[in-house]
Amino acid sequence: MLSQPDEKGGEDGEEYDELLPTPILGDDNLYFCAECTSEVVDGLCHRCGAEHRYLEDEIFHESSSTVTQAIHPDRVSAPRGTTPLLDVDPLREIPPMESCISQYPVKQGSRENEYWQLIQRGATRLMCETFRLEFSYEAGIYAWADDDIFRDFSGPLMRPGDFWKIQLGRRIELDSDDLDGSAFIEGLLEDALLFPYRGHFSRKLHEKWETVEESPGIWITRIQEDRNMDEDDDYSSTSNDMSDGEDGPDSHHEGSTTVICPNEYDISEDDPEQGSAEIDDGDSKWDSGEENFDELEDDLSEGEDDASTENTSEGPISEDEQALAEEAAYFADFPIRIS
Question: How far is CA 88 from CA 93, 113, 239, 339, in A?
C-alpha cells in the first residue's frame, strides 16, 4: 500500500505522485480511471475512489475569452497617436526582404524602414516572410493570405490563382507560441467573417468587415469605414431593411399628409389693418367682415321664395322638398358666421 505524503510536500510528495497510476485521456479532454474506466476528477475516481496522478498542468484548457479581434481598437486603419510601439534593438539584423522572391504582388525596392515599423508593431520576422506583410502610414498593416488561409477562408467568388490581402490594423499582439502569426490571422478571420460582431442587417457599418475585389484577381478584406456611427443598430434596422416596399410602424411620408384643421391664427388680431383678409374655399372667396352676413341671409331668403313659387306653380310638393324648404327656413333665422 502506498504511504501518504507528508503535509509539507517536498521530495516525499513528488515520489508519491510518481507512484500513482496515470489516468486515461479520453474524448473532450476528460480523464478516466485506469482500473474501472470511470471519470477521474481532481485525481480521484468518482466510482472506486482510486487515486491517480494529478495532471492539472497537462490538461488542455480551451480559451474562453469574449474579446473579438474584429472590433479591437488595434484593427483601425487610420493613423493614431496612441499606438504603443516596441523598443527594437537598433543593432538587430535586418533581413534582405527586398531580395525575397514571391508570387505575391508586393512592393519592390528597399523595405528597411517598413520592416522596422512591422517589428515595432508586434510582427515577427517569420510572420513578415510567411505572409509578406506590408505597412503604410495611411492604411496600416496588411498580410497576403498563404495557401492554407486561402483554402480555409476564401469566399465562393475567389478563384485559384487569385490573391487575397487582409487588413491587420495598426498593431499586432501574438501569443508566445504563435511565431509565424498564422493563429492570429485565423482568429481574426473567424471573428470578422464567420462570427461577425455586427449582423447582416445591422446599420452600424463601422464595426462590419467587407471583402471586395480591389482589382481583377486581387481581393481585400478590410473593416468598413467609420460611417453612420449615430445610427441605432438593432431597433432602427427593423423598419428600414424591409423588402417589397413594406413600411415600419413609425414610417411617415412627407407630402402625402393632408391638413385636417387649417391654422386659424394666421392673421394677427392685434393688427386692425388685417381685418379684411380673404379665405379661399374652392371656387368662391368671402371677406371675413360682418358686412356680408346680410347678403348671405338675403340669398337664402330668395332661394326659399323661388322654391315656394316653383312648388306653387307645379302643384303639391313632395315630402323631401318640404323637408328641404323647412331646413332652409330654419337656417334663415340665424346669422351665418364664417371663420
Answer: 11, 12, 53, 86
CA distances from 7 to 4, 13, 329 (A): 9, 8, 117
Kindly report the pTM of this predicted structure: 0.46
Per residue, the 3-state secondary structure of the chain, as one string, reads: CCCCCCCCCCHHHHHHHHHCCCCEECHHHCEECCCCCCEEECCEECCCCCECCCCHHHCCCCCCCCCCHHHCHHHCCCCCCCCCCCCCCCCCCCCCHHHCCCCCCCCCCCCHHHHHHHHHCCCCHHHHHHHCCEEECCCEEEEECCHHHHHHHCCCCCCCCCEEEEEEECCCCCCCCCCCCHHHHHHHHHHHHHCCCCCCCCCCCCCCEEEEEEECCEEEEEECCCCCCCCCCHHHHHHHCCCCCCCCCCCCCCCCCCCCCCCCCCCCCCCHHHCCCEEEECCEEEECCHHHHHHHHHHHHHHHHHHHHHHHHHCCCCHHHHHHHHHHHHHHCCCCCCC
Q: How many Cβ atoms sit within 10 Å of the Cβ of residue 331?
A: 13
Q: What is the pLDDT of residues 182-215, one digit of tens each?
A: 999 999 999 888 887 776 666 766 678 889 999 9
> 206-216, pLDDT tens digit by residue?
678 889 999 99
